[in-house]
Specification:
The complex is a heterodimer of chains A (112) and B (114).
Chain A (H helix, E strand, L loop, with lengths): L4 E3 L2 E5 L4 E6 L5 E9 L6 E6 L5 E4 L2 E6 L4 E6 L8 E9 L6 E2 L3 E6 L1
Parallel strand pairs in A: 2-11
Antiparallel strand pairs in A: 1-3, 3-8, 4-5, 4-9, 6-7, 7-8, 9-10, 9-11
Chain B lengths: L4 E3 L2 E4 L5 E6 L6 E7 L6 E7 L2 E5 L6 E5 L5 E5 L8 E8 L9 E2 L3 E5 L1
Parallel strand pairs in B: 2-11
Antiparallel strand pairs in B: 1-3, 3-8, 4-5, 4-9, 5-6, 7-8, 9-10, 9-11
């Protein structure tokens, strides 16, 4: 059974703090790792898709790294803002097909 | 930019009834995915279609069926509904088949079975 673990489950930070979350996934049959940002009552928004070991991607104040050998990815948010409050989901794709296996997410709350 | 459209957004059904959920992918996207997210759970993959053919099958109950039509929209048919089917059902689409393609999600259909 493929399992994707995210930690922490929830996080509360102050505006301006930098923070990071972890996603752990099976290192065998790795094909892709996705990060999504999901605000309440909205669709999950794709942040990054990473496929290569050592990949680093950045979008504004948010960046992500990937280690496929040890099976983890980090998502970093620099200088958190209240609008960053959301649930951040990671999802693992293996070589077998199209399905993504999701973690339970990290819920971030940023106070001003 | 056009997004994935799902209808209805909310649906209330009674046990043993049937429900049909619809998904309209982003124009030119050829792959559609269905996910089910129960209360407090992570999204679980149900089924996907590529170019109108079933591509992958996940934890979809036998009571559910789905198809992708010639215009690429997809429908998820759910029969003999059970209380445990109450969940948020997401549809996603991508341009290309394979887990390395970015999947764009719709807003979801919240199904409540009473």
């Amino acid at each position: 059974i493929l399992n994707v673990e995210q930690s922490p489950q929830s996080l509360h930070v102050q505006e301006g703090d930098s923070t990071n979350f972890t996603c752990s996934f099976p290192s065998s049959n790795f094909y892709a790792l996705h990060w999504y940002r999901w605000e309440t009552a909205k669709s999950p928004e794709a942040l990054f898709v990473m496929t290569l070991n050592g990949d680093e991607k950045k979008k504004g104040r948010i960046s992500a790294t990937l280690n496929t050998k040890e099976g983890y990815s980090y998502l970093y948010i620099k200088g958190s803002q209240p609008e960053d409050s959301a649930t951040y989901l990671c999802a693992f794709g293996d070589q077998a097909g199209t399905a993504l296996i999701f973690g339970k997410g990290t819920t971030l709350s940023v106070s001003s | 930019a056009a997004g994935v459209i799902q209808s209805p957004r909310h649906l209330i059904k009674e046990k043993r009834e049937t429900a049909t959920l619809k998904c309209y992918p982003i124009p030119r996207h050829d792959t559609v995915y269905w996910y089910q997210q129960g209360p407090g759970q992570d999204p679980q993959f149900l089924i996907s279609f590529y170019e109108k053919m079933q591509s992958d099958k996940g934890s979809i109950p036998d009571r559910f069926s789905a198809q992708q039509f010639s215009d690429y929209h997809s429908e998820l048919n759910m029969s003999s509904l059970e209380l445990g089917d109450s969940a948020l059902y997401f549809c996603a689409s991508s341009l290309g088949r394979g887990s390395s393609y970015e999947q764009y999600f719709g807003p979801g259909t919240r199904l409540t079975v009473t």
